[in-house]
Amino acid sequence: MRPLTRRRTTHRADPAPSRLAYRMHRLALTPAVRKGFTFGVPILALAVMAGLTFADPERRGAVTAWVDDIKAQIQSREEFMVRLMAVDGASETVSQAIRDTLKVGFPVSSFDLDLPAMQDTVTSLPAVKEASLRIRPGGILDIRVVEREPAFVWRNSDGLRLIDAAGHAVETAEARTDRADLPLLSGIGADAAAPEAVELIKAAAPILPRLRGLVRIGERRWDVVLSDGQKIRLPETRAVSALEQVLAVDEAQDLFARDVVLVDMRTPRRPTVRIAPQAATDLRQVKMTELGDD
Amino acid sequence: MFDLYQSQRAMRAMRQTAMQRGVVAILDVGTSKIACLILRFDPTPMPTEGVGPMAGHSAFRIIGAATTRSRGVRFGEIDAMHETERAIRTAVQGAQKMAQVRVDHVIAAVSGGGPRSYGLAGQIALSGQQVADRDVAEVLSACEMPNIGEGREVLHAQPVNFALDHRSGMNDPRGQVGDILACDMHMLTVDSHVIANLIHCIKRCDLELAGLASGAYVSGIASLLEDEQELGAACIDMGGGATGLSIFWRKHLIYADAVAMGGAQVTSDISKGLQVSLATAERMKTLHGGVVATSMDDRDMIELGGESGDWDHDRRTVSRAELIGIMRPRVEEILEEIRARLDAAVFEALPSQQIVLTGGGSQIPGLDTLAPRILGQQVRIGRPVRVAGLPEKATGAAFASAVGLCLFAANPQDEWWDFDIQPERHGARSLRRAMRWFKENW
């Protein structure tokens, strides 16, 4: 009789992965391969896409131009524009000099201003002691300047020059009478010893009306020159105390009212006074008549 | 002997590598199913709520498990290499897929191969010195090697007892002082061709063998409680093609054996007795099988079914009592065979004679009333201990040896080849002896 049901004629083997499938599965589970597929392949694909896109120089230029355009648009916004420069704490001439030196063409974007370099430029001006720059809200470049105060008039071979208490040159002067209020210095290296000169001027307060100036001798010591050609030679060290010593004698004995030409304090333990030749002759005459001997 | 030492050392080194990598696979090649579990070893065990680490096996977690029907395996031995390799591939790939990790090292169990147990004894003279590692290795090497026969391979060689002078029952004699150090060693041998076939199959799957264990032994580790192992107990692993027997005492395996009969024989009996196909017989066995018949079973009729096309043949029915009548003699035969092996091993001399039935065959209904009649009163049906991450479907008695292999992988027993034998020690020893002779005589 023919079977009514379908018969399984062939024995079907149990399913099993083939050797190749098994090996591929194991390979896929290897940590390095897994990591490569998770990260390596996408990164590689992105890199290839980017590389192909930018291989064309025209497209590269277009992207660069687009980036520059965006950048310029942002930088030239009203919020970033600087329209004014305000200089505080400087005299008219110095302020003009700062404006001439910086040469900023307003209006300008604050991104184009290099404030540290501008500060260096301003500070390098001789009349400027220190400067601080900032961009104030409202588009104002605010420069605050502290000027050097001229303390002396220094006469040297080049002419007259104003220097401050630290010895830095401030500006040149046309004539001594322009700044008659400042004491006069002369001699080579006087500017380097300006701080000491300040002290000497302070100590010489009692004879200030008669003081003509200080002379730097040999870049090592000072001479104090008074009116009528009287001179005080000061030592290299402890010059201020030597001057005070001389002034004390002057106060007690009225030294400079006499016919004294020179007070030599170079050796502090042996002060020497030179009197005028006529007075010396007279003094000898007086001594001869009174004592009968020299 | 030395080859064995070297190959087992190499396998231990492989196991160390696997532990360092943190992932190892467990392969239980049985007659009815092939199970593959993937373990991940945690360097620091996670603190668990409630039950803390039990017997040190919380240090690993099962991250992948797969089971497949076994092909080409008979009596726990590989019969058709190609089919077995395909089945192993299926199981390993399934477990890898679940774990999402690649495994390179595998620990396998051998359930067939006619295991034979040997008890060895050895002793050395110590002359009042402290026992060092070297002495332990020496006394293990001093055990007299019995003639294990041609074509046999040593699977386990575990020291089970150390004795120092008159004191016996030591687990670790190191550091103690004595004159004579003696040891007892349990050695298990199996057929070398069975092992060679298994190793070849595993190699063909691109896996490295990191350990081999006896199936009966690892079932015992998984199913016996700790105090049962201490007091003396036997574990009977009723598998598909072979029934394994392992006897534990003082937490050591002291005897292992196997009977080459199992569930497959029961199935073939049903197939022959009822004239049905093997698949139908297997289904009837698992759904309706039993070993104790009641009057209810006479009225419980089972349709045999069939696809022969012969209407009368395909419409046969059989009562459940008849099915039980076919199954029971075979199960009795297996248990009686086990009883004979237990008697041969002098099991009744142990302080406790607990018998634990495990394996797929232990799930036959009514076995808990049949087994005590043959094996004695202290019989229980056991299940393997729970391990972390094991899927629910793999927690049954049929997975006793797979779970036992996990425990074996996590805490292996010291074997003879774990101790370094030093070839030059004889020279140093004779020199010492000469020095002593000089001191005593001059």
Automatic annotation (TrEMBL), chain A:
Signal peptide: none
Location(s), subcellular: Cell inner membrane; Membrane
Membrane topology listed for this record: Single-pass type II membrane protein
Keyword Cell cycle: yes
A Pfam family per the record: POTRA_1
Cellular component annotations (GO), alphabetically ordered: cell division site; plasma membrane
Primary site of residence: membrane
Protein's GO biological process: cell septum assembly; FtsZ-dependent cytokinesis
Name this polypeptide is given: Cell division protein FtsQ
Keywords, alphabetical: Cell cycle, Cell division, Cell inner membrane, Cell membrane, Membrane, Transmembrane, Transmembrane helix
Gene from which the chain derives: ftsQ
Family: Belongs to the FtsQ/DivIB family. FtsQ subfamily.
Function field: Essential cell division protein.
Residues in POTRA domain copies: 80-148
TrEMBL record, chain B:
Pfam families cross-referenced by the UniProt entry: FtsA, SHS2_FTSA
Places the protein is found: Cell membrane
GO terms classed as biological process: FtsZ-dependent cytokinesis
Highest taxon listed in the record's lineage: Bacteria
Major localization class: membrane
Entries under SMART domains matching the protein: FtsA
Chain ranges of the SHS2 domain: 24-223
Subunit structure: Self-interacts. Interacts with FtsZ.
Protein name: Cell division protein FtsA
